[in-house]
UniProtKB/TrEMBL annotation:
It is an enzyme of class 2 (transferase). This is Pyrimidine/purine nucleoside phosphorylase. GO terms for cellular component: cytosol. It catalyses: adenosine + phosphate = alpha-D-ribose 1-phosphate + adenine; inosine + phosphate = alpha-D-ribose 1-phosphate + hypoxanthine; guanosine + phosphate = alpha-D-ribose 1-phosphate + guanine; xanthosine + phosphate = alpha-D-ribose 1-phosphate + xanthine. The lineage of its organism: Bacteria, Pseudomonadati, Campylobacterota, Epsilonproteobacteria, Campylobacterales. SUPFAM superfamilies: RmlC-like cupins. The gene is ppnP.
Length: 103
């Protein structure tokens, strides 16, 4: 899906790592939440509360999921992160992403 309709976008940005990772929260009428963001090259660790499904729209990165080895992903790729865990990213090129949160 390249376009979301009938959604609410929160005005305030989510800003991480001194602005190197930013996103906007999108709320759907069914209560589901996604975020649309950009990650600049660098190394980052993120913690999750909910399960996350990350869809790469553009970019290249290395990812280390819990209990796994590092692997390289290229656009278009999608990966899942279990709830209540953390994961590591090495962003190689500017990466555009859509993250879906699964309750």
């Amino acid at each position: 899906m390249s376009k979301f309709e009938n959604v609410t976008v929160l005005k305030e940005a989510n800003i991480y790592y001194d602005g190197k990772v930013t996103s906007r929260t999108v709320e759907f009428s069914d209560g589901s939440i996604k975020s649309l963001g950009i990650m600049l090259p660098g190394e980052y660790t993120f913690n999750t509360a909910d399960k996350e499904i990350m869809e790469m729209m553009s970019g290249e990165l290395d990812i280390k999921l819990p209990g796994e080895e590092w692997k390289t992903l290229h656009t278009p790729e999608t990966f899942e992160v279990p709830a209540n865990t953390s994961f590591d990213l090495k962003i190689k090129t500017v990466t555009d992403y859509c993250c879906s949160y699964v309750k």
